[in-house]
Amino acid sequence: MTKIEQRSVCDGVNFRSIKDSRFKTVRMSIHLLLPLDRKTAAANAILPFLLTRASRKYPDFTKLNEHLAELYGAELDADVQKLGDTQVLSISASGIADRYALNRESVSSELSRLLCSVLFDPPLRDGLFPEDGFEQEKRQMAEMLDSEFNDKRMYALRRCEEIMCADEPYGISRCGTKEDIRNLKRESLTEAWSNLIHHARAEIMVLGDCDPEPVYRDFSAAFQSLGRTDVVECPTSAVESAVKTGDVTEKMDVAQSKLVMGFRTACAEPDRSVPAMKLLSALYGGTPNSKLFLNVREKMSLCYYCSSLFNPMKGLLLVQSGVESANIDRAKTEILAQLDEIRKGSFTDSELDAAKLSLRNSYRTLADSLDGLEGWYLSKTFSDPLRSPEEEAGMLDAVTRGELTKLAGSVTLDTVYRLTGNGGKAQ
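RESULT FIELD:
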């Protein structure tokens, strides 16, 4: 049985424990939230990766990994992502549950101390991060951006979001630009780290089968010793409707053209209609039984793939497809036509039931992994009230046909993005 507890550590620092004895492992993480800003995005983004290389107690990568090996092969991870208009910097540790330790060691306590060590006590030399690690992380982040650029499906989706939200913080890349990364100085990283631990909003999570109290005490002591002041606000704005429709075409040497269409929905967290909008997205293009898949892809053969996804923090509905260049305009017309079908209520009960079943299954899948649970509760940081996957799944039964048609009627097309290639077959 899952037991969820939430409490405050200090101003701007929230602690959440999700205890479930089904799991044989534990995962604990700290997510630090800052407003997205072009001037600081690159320096902030590189920090979690730089911090997880070493600490003063474990002053190099080898010593740190030796300690992880002693903890039965524990893992230390870093990540950077966007949550609405907020940049989220994450450091996580995972390992076996305490009950499986051979000598009754408290692996969870060791992991929490390790997290505090890398976050609050990095191995600064003359007030700077080690140069070799700094240069390596800069290079690896640039290579990561290159790999994302080479994945044209991902690139096209993010490019549409950037164009659509060019006047909003969400339009900023979560890692900044490659040029920003190349121009980073070590001095800026020390300043960014100090700002992070003193002013960022923090979400601490402990998941799995462990006693959360030692973790809470470790982080409480660490944060309270900082004397934190002026915790930053992390607001997110959602544009309710498109004023006009932008149409952008870019050309690259790609074998398969991409079409991404961005819509405004007038529905974003913490609106209680968010679960219904997720259902609308599933009905529209989120499942193999959806309108876009069955009609635009299968019956009309206009796309290699065609699907929709909903961003509940920003209220964005995006349709992405891979198409032949000659079929882009037809695909666009039919994608809009399928949305009109939902607006008119032209969908069967079996289609609606299939969409509900697919969403319920996705919620159940979330509860089967610590990563899934962590991602869910992190995504609910700004939700009020906080809902579990099971609670949100239960809300689907109350969604009516009339509610879906009304929501579909509020969806407006904001941006059409085309990445055109040579019209060749998909590779």
